[in-house]
Amino acid sequence: MYPLDLEKLIGYYQKLPGIGEKSAERLAIATLELSEDEVLDFSETIKNAKKNLTRCTICGHLTDQEICPICQDESRNHNIICVIEDYKSIFSLEKTGTFHGTYHVLNGLISPMDDIGPEDINLSSLISRVSKLNNPELILALKPTVEGEATTLYIKKILEDQKVTISRLSYGIPIGAEIDYLDNVTLEKALEDRKKISE
Amino acid sequence: MYPLDLEKLIGYYQKLPGIGEKSAERLAIATLELSEDEVLDFSETIKNAKKNLTRCTICGHLTDQEICPICQDESRNHNIICVIEDYKSIFSLEKTGTFHGTYHVLNGLISPMDDIGPEDINLSSLISRVSKLNNPELILALKPTVEGEATTLYIKKILEDQKVTISRLSYGIPIGAEIDYLDNVTLEKALEDRKKISE
Fold first, then answer.
1. How far is B188 from chain A (nearest CA, A)?
2. What pLDDT, in 10s, does the model give residues B143-174?
3. How many CB atoms lie within 10 A of CB A116?
4. Ordered domains of chain A (ranges, CATH)
5. Is the Cβ of B46 closer than 8 Å to some Cβ of chain A?
6. Is any Cβ of chain B less than 8 angstroms from the Cβ of A71?
């Protein structure tokens, strides 16, 4: 029913997350309505993004250089490393504007169920980074699942002989949430991680 | 904060309708996660869609041929022409599967407010199509706005000396809507266009 090129374009948009058939059609038609120059540049940009973006050799963040701007930034505290599963979290964490340390992207989490062991994720380079620092701090920003916990425990264990402070993000009630509608596990964690506000 | 190529890609996704900053970021990253072959083909598809798609010389529909498959289709009733503002409506109308006539895309509506007159939209080719047919039927599927009404009136007037049946889509309550929440104008139209179901 669609002309072939449009059908194909709709198909590609549908491959992207959260884009159903109707949205894909809308996006494809909107793409046709861009100017000729924009369409050519859009097409080039997609190709270039895939071609030019690689991983920082220090932290594993997405970058177009060998070492990402965060790892290059002298004004940041290189003694604090925030450990994350996925580079996408870096964009979110940077948006808070309050973290001035560096990052380490694991590219996965330990998951015995899926046969993913410590050697399958970007852990050895974390150990070697830590070993070169003087009393560093690791902040584990991993999701509170079995895999996140397994990875947290492993990192804690493998670094137990080194002088390193390890913390994890607090679990608790998300800002704006109604306590009545929270799931039990979150409530339990919020109780466990409760913060004293007066003695 | 984003690598340049990613930033640019996010920018292009944000140009598309209904895509905010957060979604654009998600789409751009998902694009990076496609395979290299897919990315190259996606990039080509965007370029080709813009390059190869043009308008049917008869009805104005989007097509990669000189004459679109609907106008070429001998099994359709070429004596019935559904008149629409925009080719996008063809995709929706075709999905109903119940219309077997042909289309005519006006590429706009008469709008004195915006200085758009009959000569600024694809009307003269409609008149010439109609004049070559034997007692044709025009179905006006234009939106119920001032511009839609102005265009409807103009078409009615300019064809008043010709043997042509003209109808418009019915206005009324959309299926699934709560009558309590309908706007006044829709209710008024639904009353006006009420259909006798028994005498």
1. 30
2. 888 999 899 999 999 998 888 999 988 888 88
3. 16
4. 4-52 (1.10.8.420), 55-168 (3.40.1360.10)
5. yes
6. no
